Amino acid sequence: MDRLYLYDTTLRDGQQTQGVQFSASEKTEIAQMLDALGIDYIEGGWPGANPTDSEFFDNPPATRATLTAFGMTKRAGRSAGNDEVLAAVLNAGTGSVCLVGKTHDFHVREALGISLDENVENIRASLAHLKAQGREAIFDAEHFFDGWKANRDYALQCLLAARDAGARWIVLCDTNGGTLPHEIGAITEAVIAAGIPGDWLGIHTHDDTGNAVAGSLAAIRAGARQVQGTLNGLGERCGNANLTTLIATLALKEEFAPLVPQISKAALTSLLKTSRRLDEILNRQPAPGAPYVGPSAFAHKAGLHASAIVKNPATYEHVPPEAVGNARIIPMSNQAGQSNLRARLQDAGLVVPEGADLAAILTDIKIREDQGYAYDGAQASFELLARKHLGQLPKFFVVERYRVIVERRRNAMGQQISVSEAVVVVEMDGQRVMSVSESHGESDADDRGPVNALWRALAKDLGPFQAAIDDMRLVDFRVRITNGGTDAVTRVTIDSEDRDGHRWSTVGVSPNIVDASFEALQDAVVWKLIRDGARP
User: Fold this and answer.
1) Do 321 and 247 lie in a common domain?
2) Is residue 393 part of a domain?
3) Any residues with CB less than 8 A from the CB of 314 and at least 6 apart, and which?
4) In the beta sheet, which residues pair with residue 170?
5) Is 357 found in the same domain as 440?
6) What is the CA radius of gyration of the chain?
7) How far apart are CA 166 and CA 103, in angstroms?
8) In Å, how far from its chain's centre is CA 285?
9) Where is the Pyruvate carboxyltransferase domain (predicted)?
10) Would the N or C end of the chain have less CB density within 10 A of its end CB?
11) Cα–Cα distance between 452 and 243 in angstroms, integer?
């Protein structure tokens, strides 16, 4: 069967991303997520290169995917069996081993400082040693495309040495990300014509020109049958080929879908959840415009677009959003028309009564956005506003008053800390409930301020509604000054999430940042209660 093998390098290449450092337990969790997606190979790291990678291979997760250890070819002047770096990689005990070696003559001479023939011998001997040890051998041809352009005969000689030594896969690497897709396709075809079958070839691209996914697809079209990448495109500099994007494209586009039978429909619908979980591990916000899985990937803001989407989603959506676990969004803003509004109300499950004044909702939105609100990024607050106009906004509670006090002082250890104390008084069914909460950190680095205290006080005791918000947490807080000077207005947008991964955004506006924050907090709680079917 003509089949494409998916090879993930998140646990190694992804860890080379600036600011990223996985723990061994995080690497295990990511490996299990990759396995559930249907990935064929999971490169776990470089055993012996750092304690985390060594710990991961000491207690590897059980996976259907082939767990692979990464290392480099033996050094010149010693045998493959007497190279301690290569030995550490083999000692990881994985059935598959990937070794990187130079294929660009410039790097051989200048970086390694050895002769071209010595480098070819290092490649041959190292891969033959892997085969002799009963391992599946993979050769990572570093700087291959630049090497091919500089000295085609030598770059090919390196590949043929790996092939003759018994390599199962020979991976063509665009290490600096500078090769364009049409070049990658043509060179891959030339390598196949030179005697290395496509079902022995892999492609490994970097995104320095923004072409990593396109370059990977070009190599696949040329005949390569292994593709490497990282979740969410993590990697050094501009990142690696985004495997999240590649998986969806390969599985959903007719030309490629027969090549990836290992990606089930169920696995594909978990793509967004997997992408978001990686962002959570890294404490990053999802990239809004990420293909397939970004929060804005299926957002249709312009009125004409929304009108067409209502009639035929395929007009502006090349794939159904639910295929990858995402959802369509019709944002509301001062650019919206009645088509946007009707589509958005329909998506929210709102019944529009006969004769409802939709124009009044649009007018109110435009007035409020002129005051500083922004509803295209706060869909939950828009829904509450629309419900109010339609007479469908339940009244769960009324905030009678709130107060926040911030104190800066030294703790018992002599450290400077700030302590925020919040009091919130709400009325529910004729009963007044007062909640008090304190928020503080042990140092400036982890200090939590008045908004955190307000949230904890508001969510502390909502009586019959408490169970509905116990799994709710705040995941992002954004502040924007909409105009400067003494009349400055502050806009606060808050993102909330529950244990099921549902995420929603609310907005508040006020000259006072705390007041704007509290408005957004109230909207977040009310929207959650409505969505979960709470009854006032």
Assistant:
1) no
2) no
3) none
4) 139, 201
5) no
6) 28
7) 17
8) 8
9) 4-269
10) N
11) 36
Please name which of 173, 166, 182 lies closest in space to residue 206, comparing C-alpha atoms. 173
Task: For tokens 């244990």, name the residue.
Answer: 499
To the nearest whole number, what is the mean pLDDT of the chain? 91
Report if residue 214 sits inside a domain. Answer: yes
Question: What are the residues whose beta carbons fall under 8 Å from the beta carbon of 294, sequence distance 6 or more?
Answer: 286, 287, 288
In a domain, 31, yes or no: yes
Whether 28 contacts 10, CB under 8 Å = no
Task: Quote the number of domains for the chain.
Answer: 3
Tens-digit pLDDT profile for residues 237-271: 999 999 999 999 999 999 999 999 999 999 999 99
- State the Cα–Cα distance between residues 153 and 355, nearest whole angstrom: 76
What pLDDT, on the 0 to 100 scale, is given for residue 446?
41
366 lies in which domain range?
303-372
Question: Which candidate, 34, 95, 496, places its Cα nearest to that of 270?
Answer: 34
Other C-beta atoms within 10 Å of 170: how many? 27
H/E stretch holding 41 reads strand 41-45
Query: What is the SS3 assignment for 28?
Result: helix
* Token pair for 111: 């970086």
